[in-house]
Amino acid sequence: MNNDHVKQSMLPPSASISRRRVLQLSGLGVAGAVVGPAVLAACGSDEVGVSTGKLDKVKAHWVYIGPPDDNGWTQAHDDGRKTVEAALGSRVETAFTPNIGFDASTNQLFQQLTDDGNDIIFANTEYSQLLSDVAAANPGTKYVECNGHNYTANTAAYYMAHERTAYLLGVAAGLLTPNGTMGYIGAFPSATFFNDVNPMLLGARSVNPKATMQSVLISSYFDPQNAAIAADALLSQGVEFLFGVMDEPTFLIKAEAAGVWTGYWNLDFRSAAPTKYVNNFNLDGFGPFYTSQVEAVLNGTWAPPAKPEPFLLDCPLGEWGDQVPQEVQDAVAEVDKQILSGDLHVYEGPLVDNTGVERLPAGEFLDEQDAYLMSYAVEGVSGI
């Protein structure tokens, strides 16, 4: 990648709205109890060395925004925690606290988990100051926050770099549909939302320049009733591919019943749409990432990135649906090769937003760290 043409991040970290951070708008409370007694290029030479001393056993705790069996986001993280247990056995003790929202009791929870002697604490959403205040007062404990923007000697952030995956799904949708009309059910106007709808539309337009993206935001990642209403509205408008960032499969079931292609964010959920399922984001990278982090604590080598930026995990496509033609799969695989080789960039100028403002000049492109701060919809995306 030629960094001479990489545009610098558009917003400071404090201005970004992350995937799960915005759940604080829903007013969730702390409802859960504590349960239960490599691999990444990002974890290489760009880290700041921190001498912590080797440990015989690490005590690690996960704080979850939802339940571990939500068929979505939190389940993917809990699968990652289980991967750590399987990989490290008696050298690690893990536990988790589910259904944690955004109020003063969450700050107290992080302090209690610290006082309980946890060596490293993972949060599968951004808790911002509710976590960072505790981290600042406890430099001997490591805190790793998904979607986070807090970068200190004992804190790190991480997320899935999913814009490439969304682009590939867009290519598939553009090839599978006559008109390239796509629909998307989201929660909030976050970077996650923009890094889904934008690349998906850009991918579709690479094979069908007339493709469009209609979005509906329902202010929740888990609201089957409103997801059903949104799905019905989009399907009634004639969308030919329906996607969403929900933690339950209502929209998949609706798409299947309407004979419309569909896909899922968090897990392989083809069972909800056996004849119209296209693909999903593969979040299996959480397991290797968590394992590498705990191993680093064991070895006394844990460190955050040297730069104030997150660890970005690889997020490939999952398994293709049974009815997706082989020629579509092959075409998408070829595009993926071009992206991975650097011959093709997901975000490449000229890029205009949906208000007509040029956001990226010709000859420039955004890298994954820039995309982490994405804050606008490209031309062709409506509903936002």
From TrEMBL:
Domain (ABC transporter substrate-binding protein PnrA-like) ranges: 58-246
This protein's GO CC annotations: plasma membrane
Keywords assigned by UniProt, alphabetized: Signal
InterPro entries in the record: ABC-Purine-Binding (IPR052910), PnrA-like (IPR003760), TAT_signal (IPR006311)
The protein's name: ABC transporter substrate-binding protein PnrA-like domain-containing protein
Provenance organism: marine metagenome
